[in-house]
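Limitations

Structures in this collection are predictions, not experimental determinations, and the ligand pose is part of the prediction. Treat each record accordingly. The example that follows, with protoporphyrin IX containing FE as the small molecule, is included so readers can see exactly what is and is not provided: the inputs are given verbatim, and the output is the predicted complex.
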Amino acid sequence: MQKIKLWDAPVRLFHWSLVGAFAWLWYSGETGSAMDWHMRIGELVLALVIFRIIWGFVGSSNARFADFIRPGGVVAYLKSLFSRDAALHAGHNPLGGLVVLLMLLLLLVQAVTGLFTTDEIFTEGPLYGLVSSDLAGQLSGLHHQNFEILLVVVALHVAAIAFYLVYKRTNLVRPMITGSKPWPDAPAPQIRFANPWFGIGLFVVVYAAVRGVIALLGS
Ligand code: HEM
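Predicted complex:
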């Protein structure tokens, strides 16, 4: 076995920041506690998702949508789903890639609708004032329903990771933490890595733009 570098630092930072933010948003949304922080962290998630979408075009080769959105490969992947052969993907597998895209879209809907959401008592999203109260009501409903869908998809995502660990004996979590993955003595995949500082700088710019646009529109 050799070790190959798999995930770049921006993808890993994106993922674990998203997991922490998601846990906090779930807790604060359900309990209604510290809703000012619910909104701040919601803006962070919006910036994270916009960053990840841009990184899907300009980032490292295995972080790009062109690399992991392969609907044509899903049937062949499903046929080998229960094979215990070591799962060798130098990125997301074809089904996982589609789930990643779905999670990003659901997160985008979640974060954008949150900007207009109201609980009709104490809390209003920062852009609530831009829309009619009818539309705000509909967007608030969507914010709640979409979260239920998001929870189901995230549960499937975590179940798939557990399936890989237990059934396929392939640990996908460690590479998402350390960045590297064991690889058999077969030719290593050719992954082109983007400069991680470019990724981090890009995120800072996206975050500042998200905060700036929301402040401008909400004032
Ligand atoms: C403790 C819970 C979680 C674990 C252990 C976990 C683990 C992982 C792993 C191992 C991957 C890489 C899969 C692969 O090799 O193809 C991944 C990717 C991903 N996960 Fe999770 N995940 C968790 C929670 C979440 C949550 C809560 C979300 C969203 C709200 C999420 C969203 C994503 C996304 C968007 C990707 C794609 C990363 C990228 O390409 O940038 N994950 N996750």
